[in-house]
Amino acid sequence: MNGRPLRYILDLTFDKEFKSFSGSVQIIVEGFKEKEIVNFDAKPNLDIQNVYINDEKVVFERSESIITTCCSIIPQKFCFNFSGTFNSGDHGIIVKDNCVITQCEADFASCIFPCFDNPENRVKISLTIHHDKEHVALSNCLPEYITEKDGITTTIFKETLPIPLYLFAFCIGKFDCVETVTKRGLPIKIYSIPEMTEYANSITENIPIIIDYLENYTETPLPLEVLQFLICREQTGMENFGLIIYGPNSSLTNMKKAREATINDAFSVFVHEIVHHWISCIVSISDWESVWIKEGFTTFMTRYVLSKTFPSLDKANNYIIREFLPTLKMNVKRPILYCNMTVQDYFNTDTSYTKASCLFHTLFQWFGEENFRKNICELIKNLYLADVNLEKFAKFMKLDENFIQKWLKYSGIPTLVYDGSNITNNSDLEIPIHVTIFNENNFDVKKLFIKEKDTELIYNAAVINNNVESLTFVRYSREYLMKLEKLFDELVINENHVALLIYSYTSAYESHEIDAKEIIELLYLTRRYESKQVVQPAIQILFKVCEDVKSEFDPNYLFNYFDVRGKEIGCNAGPDKIMLIINRLLPYIEIDKITQSMQGKFGKNAIKAIRTKIFNHGKK
């Protein structure tokens, strides 16, 4: 397409019962040529009556979601007359709680009017809504004029700043309103349906604190006359520029019965949408491939902002549970970006939100708190009311674009970085390995040095490798593992790390990404960790792989592992559980060695019972 839209002039009419709607839109454009074929997005819920080019009626063709017309003249504007029905679900234009709500992200503005429904064009939007006089209309900007005639109110809104269509929004209904203001004087209006008024009142004092912090952090004040919120029920949160819409769980309609955790989770969504006003609104995305930038940054930053502003609501301590661990449990083969993605694929919660937030968490640790902030400020300053993509992101974050590409297209999460920039042919040269390690509360990046000759397997695995694998090298030869056993001890902060590592390997084994040999090697390397949180997942995966291993391993290999864990397992489960394990180990371990390892750990009767069962098993 040669041309681009500059401005939308939208006029919509709604009946009192919200059964349907009708309207017209003028699209002011530039760059289109005579005889050019132009395609517009229009979802199936829209019925297109007429199409005009420069006020001249033209012929058009309609497919399921596309309107096509040919420019008989050089166009300065396209005009459409249309009517529409409301959508079901949470996207497009919907009726919920007796009010009209819009959700244009990702490509659902075309449920409301014909348009070029992509993120690459930032356009100004002028909106007029005709609605019942008992209702209030809200949009991205404040009304400029409100008139009433014959029971119909006409609300004409001020023109928006240039925004991508996914940030356009309006709503119509009966709303309560509470107002507050930030330190620098930005008005805040929190609208709500009557059932959510009590909840709206409960967060009124907190909202300005978040905005004040972010304006200071980014060194960029919000370019808005007012920031509005609409609180409804059971509605996906959306950062529409100037009008944040979110419907928390309906349990919050009764604050006395709502659990504090649920309230905190709901407030964190509002924080998420406020953060988006810097990365998504002030700086938007240039294409759907860049969704991970805005969602990954905002998911990470929400935890960070809460830790600074409301320690009692601080989610940072839950980072492993809320972002990292879910990433381990998801399909480890799914990267953030892959071939043949649909628009909705780019908004996958596991990848563009959760996994991408892990990436930003690693970048934060990599740069350090202040340098990370400076890079974000520079990005916002240089791309103010413009868009960002991977190339621009890498430039202002001072990263190599190819380096980030490998992160985005790799199936794991970013934890290990191999810096091969100074590689020579000297196999004894020590080179830096940056490793992401963590304890219960946060991640740290540790810089280690290892000889070049020992890095080949790390490099071949991936620049950034899978899951918790700052320990990537434990996935390979046993000889290599033994060399690095000391390094493993340095990397593992505590047993939470070991447990997560075992869970991640279990997931990889079940999806056939790794084989039984790699599982056993990991269990051997982690054999010294005896807490229940490590032993339980270790035994579970041991059950799964023992029969696959057969005679491939040295019998003492498994015996050593079993010997260390015998007491812990026995205390938890007794001889019957031990017998299940023994049945798995019989092909590999001598009976005398098994019973020898139990001396002092079990009573004589238990050992006798176990020996009898082993003997009977042998007779079978």
From TrEMBL:
Stored InterPro entries: Aminopeptidase_N-like_N, Aminopeptidase_N-like_N_sf, Peptidase_M1, Peptidase_M1_aminopeptidases, Peptidase_M1_dom, Peptidase_M4/M1_CTD_sf
Limits of the Aminopeptidase N-like N-terminal domain: 5-167
Source taxonomy: Eukaryota, Metamonada, Parabasalia, Trichomonadida, Trichomonadidae
Family, per entry: Belongs to the peptidase M1 family.
GO biological process: peptide catabolic process; proteolysis
Name listed for the protein in its UniProt record: Clan MA, family M1, aminopeptidase N-like metallopeptidase
Any one Pfam family match given in the protein's UniProt record, by short name: Peptidase_M1_N
SUPFAM superfamilies in the cross-refs: Leukotriene A4 hydrolase N-terminal domain, Metalloproteases ('zincins'), catalytic domain
Native source organism of the sequence: Trichomonas vaginalis (strain ATCC PRA-98 / G3)
Domain Peptidase M1 membrane alanine aminopeptidase: 210-398
Entry cofactors: Zn(2+)
One GO molecular-function entry: zinc ion binding
Keyword S-adenosyl-L-methionine assigned: no
Keyword terms of this UniProt record: Aminopeptidase, Hydrolase, Metal-binding, Metalloprotease, Protease, Zinc
